[in-house]
Amino acid sequence: MRWRGRIQGKNDTNGWFPKSYVKLNENAPQKQTSVESSHSQQQSSHITPSNSQHVFPPPSQPTSTSGQWFVALYQFDAVEPTDLSLKIGERIFVTELEGEWWKGTVDGRSGIFPANYVEKAQSVPALPLTAVNASGDSVESDRKGRVIAAFEATADNQISLHVGDQVQVKNTTPGGWWEGNVIGKEEKTGWFPGNYVQLISAASTPIGPNSKLADAAFDYEAQHADELSFKAGDVIEVVEQTDNEWWKGRISGQSGESLLFPSNFVQLRSGGAYELKPRNPNHSNLKQSEQVRKELIETEARFADDLLMVRNVFMKPLATVLSEGDLNKLFLNWNELIKLSKRIHQGLLKKPPGELFCRRIDAFEEFVRFCEGQQSAIEHLNHLEKTNETFRKCHLKCQENDAVRGVTLSYYLLLPMARITRYPLIFEKLLKETDAKDEDYEALHNAHQLLQALCARVNNAISEMQNTSFLCWSQRNIKTSIKHLEFTSETRELGPRKFLQSGIVYKQKSHKMLIVLLYNDMLILTTPDEHIVKPDDFKIQPSEDTKLTIYKSPLILKDLKVDSSSSDSTTFELKNQELTVQLKANTNNEKMFWVNQIRKAVDDYDMNAQLNRAKDIKKNHEVFDDSTVAEMSIEFVNLSRPDLQNKSIIISTDLPQFTQPITQQVTVATTPLLQFKLDLKSLKQDLTASFKLIQTYRPDIMIGEFKQDIMQLVRIAAHHRGPILRNLELEKGEMSGKKCEVVVKFVINIKETL
Hints:
Elements: E1 2-5, E2 15-18, E3 68-72, E4 91-96, E5 101-106, E6 109-114, E7 118-120, E8 143-147, E9 166-172, E10 177-182, E11 190-193, E12 197-200, E13 212-216, E14 235-240, E15 246-251, E16 259-262, E17 266-268, H1 285-318, H2 324-331, H3 334-348, H4 353-360, H5 365-387, H6 389-399, H7 409-412, H8 415-432, H9 441-477, E18 478-479, E19 499-507, E20 513-519, E21 522-528, E22 548-550, E23 555-556, E24 561-563, E25 571-575, E26 580-584, H10 588-614, E27 630-639, E28 648-654, E29 662-667, E30 674-680, E31 686-693, E32 701-709, H11 710-718, E33 724-729, E34 741-750
Parallel strand pairs: 18-22
Antiparallel strand pairs: 1-2, 3-4, 3-7, 4-5, 5-6, 8-9, 8-12, 9-10, 10-11, 13-14, 13-17, 14-15, 15-16, 19-20, 19-26, 20-21, 21-22, 21-23, 24-25, 25-26, 27-30, 27-34, 28-29, 28-31, 31-32, 33-34
Helix pairs in contact: 1-3, 1-6, 1-8, 2-5, 4-9, 5-6, 5-9, 8-9
GO cellular component, one term: cytoplasm
Region (Disordered): 28-63
Pfam family, one: RhoGEF
């Protein structure tokens, strides 16, 4: 991704530069981004602000009928104007929690985001201590603000807020609590969370009767004198919409002339100056349905235009410097997506959406095909950027086009994925606005189900490809002397190995930097072979060539315990039967992130291992009489292969009368290996025994198995006194070399009533 800016103190020339080449100055003035401090829960339970005569009890976690607080676990970059960008650790006030995409607000910005990118916030805003703002300066009195999220008072010293209310702000605190009153409703002064309110400039004036309010979805810097600059989250007063692509307006609350800005950088609000108009329950469902259908048509048209733009701005110029093979690796089936989107758009103008999508659903395989190769295309793009100077120059030239404004091709390669995941959301809205008795309802419902299934396929395909890339990277880049540790192999108990998380932690005492790699069956601590310049920005990427060395033997999740009870808010402990490691994160949020991720992985391991073991339970085992006809003693004496000496093996013994095999772990060292007795319900059964060599990081290796007819043993016993000693060759073995043999001793005692 690229940003636009200028070198401070040198000149006024603006230009584009890679985002990854810079780091934001933490000492520069910033907006208040949180209503809480990590120490807020340690405050005294009765604290009096310096300018108040009253004693304030501690407020509880804000409760609201309109939403809940969540914390971002991962960064999410908005793809469409309706998306809400998230940064790790950012607090989001979530107002809609349905499906895989939720709706919320951050610092005045509203939009939708993936539900699995956040977790519920656990702490509460700090209590007011002194009447100062976040920077420590005395707050200016009589500031006005607009409520952007509802809050219901839970204590006498608090006031309730409703979206759209204007409040008079008296005081603010470093912990995020503000004091004030709601204008025009009641004179009561009370406390409320500061980030539920957006301050209004002192120069603010009501917007005109023909004006509308819009929220800036992205930063925009004016290119000409008649254009308006703004930041994501700014509120803009739109005064003119005569052109579809460029509107006129000003920053809300500021005076001056109206300036031009791109319409696709903002999202219009549905209400007036300082309120979000609630939906009228008596409004016609038909009208709402038509609005959603219009949204589907318009967004499809924009998607088709974007695809065409990419072909004209990127694909055609790059075709002059790339081979056909490289071009196909980058753009995959882009031309087919253009044709499909055009057909969908034209069809939507003629037919109901449900009917059209049900008929065309097979054509949407083009999305699956593209999304399966999307990650490989982006990695190939990065490879060409590093190794092909001619390509790099041509790519930079493409980015100078006014249609893309410095955005790289990698961003546009994400558009098909963004589009296919939007279809179910739009159809979900159509279903909500369509009466169940409507003739189009069934087709809409069927199309919604088909699109959800398609998205699930896309997600699975992408997850599998990304997982394969990470496992191959692990195999290439992690140095280890551990035998049989093959990252690309299956796990011992869970089937395919999956890469889950990576990141940086530190040894608690020595502060040694460690890179954690979490898989679905094990956790690995490694050290980087080279110094990491920017630890805060470090992230494992399959396209990068970072070399790591294993620091400790992998910690198998089956036996792993996580302890987060340390008095240090950033320290946690990992331990199994052999090892204890104390680790330290940079922040409490990072600590809890790792604690939660590891605990979840451990729980998932236990659950999936149990499910896999349950598969051994026979659904249709043979049913015999309850009476016992004979008692059989079995003794596995030894195995013939010397290379199994002192190795741990699993012996599974089975009979048709069992609901599941008897499984025991033994060490090939003592004689006998194993002995036990069985009550036989019938003599007409075959005894089966299998032997497997235990592997830690991959599936157990089959040494072999044998099958013994019990009636044959009975006939031998009739002519032979004492134990029956048999030397049995094991079949279906997976070990190289000579087949293994096992010596087994049988004793059968038949009941006299037989």
